[in-house]
Amino acid sequence: MQDEYGCVAYLPVSPSSEELELMCKQKSELIDKYDTLDEHITDEILTLMQKCYFLQRKEIHIGKDLSTIFQQWPFFYHYKFIVQHADELLGKDTNVVWKTSLEKLSKPINRWAKNLEVAREVKDKSKKNAVDGERKFVRDRLKLATKYSEQKKNDEPYNTVVFELIVKFMKENLTFLYNIIDESIEDAELLKHVPVVNPVLIIREFLNKILQQFFLQICPPKGTKRGGKRKATKIHPKVFKLTKDIDSYLADESDD
């Protein structure tokens, strides 16, 4: 059953004591396998992780410390298992949904960001305000995307740049999104250039809502992940504006 927030398996029904005991054994087996892993992810490991889904959800609810979760379920260090878990949680192929949404949204978001930047610059000049030194950030990023798109002969640069534009609009810290390092740096030296061993994208709740709604199509009209009653949550003004603006650009795309 789908809960109010959009997850289909936020906390599954408790299994029998025998099934739970088997999951605990499979968990220990997975830890042993990870310790002797030769970097090859097998179907057996994927299946074992999937069979332990209930136990993973239970422990995620009990302990919110990511380091503990990764210690108990070390295969989560590999993206395949995070994606597999998300597929189960949301009841959809998240890779397909993400890619489809990104292809659909990249052009409207790029157009929106560029027009917003130009309009802001015109407004600043008309008021004789000091123009921000980064006033052409969006246009510069889109020029760079065009350059790499021509080199790669695909639209991937136009798709990936949208996250920079959204983060910039939300006034988040771009270093949470990526770190630029010299391409000559060897893998062994790479960890010296990242702030944590397990890098994660740090995002505020309102930016998280944008990513969920736009790219994973999680659009709950109300409620929480746990269900139940709670007071209605106000939508952050920037989330509301961004959603409204992008919707108008999507409408323009459909009319073309």
Summarize the structure.
With 256 residues, the chain is mainly alpha-helical. It has helices at residues 17-35, 43-51, 53-62, 66-72, 79-90, 94-126, 137-152, 156-169, 187-190, 205-215, 237-255.
What does this structure look like?
- α1 runs antiparallel to α2, α6 (94-126) crosses α8 (156-169) and α7 packs antiparallel against α8 (156-169).
- This protein has helices at 17-35, 43-51, 53-62, 66-72, 79-90, 94-126, 137-152, 156-169, 187-190, 205-215, 237-255.
- The protein has 256 residues and is an all-alpha fold.
- Residues 221-231 have low confidence and may be disordered.
- It folds into 2 domains: 17-90, no CATH class; 94-255, no CATH class.
What gross morphology would you assign?
Answer: globular
Total discrete domains: 2
- Helix-strand pattern: HHHHHHHHHHH
Helix content: 55-70%
Beta-strand fraction estimate: under 5%
Low-confidence stretches: 221-231
Q: Can you count the helices?
A: 11
Give the end-to-end Cα distance, rounded to a whole number of Å.
39 Å
Biggest sheet character = none
List keywords for this structure.
mainly alpha; 256 residues; globular
Can you lay out the helices and strands and say which pair or pack?
Layout lengths: L16 H19 L7 H9 L1 H10 L3 H7 L6 H12 L3 H33 L10 H16 L3 H14 L17 H4 L14 H11 L21 H19 L1
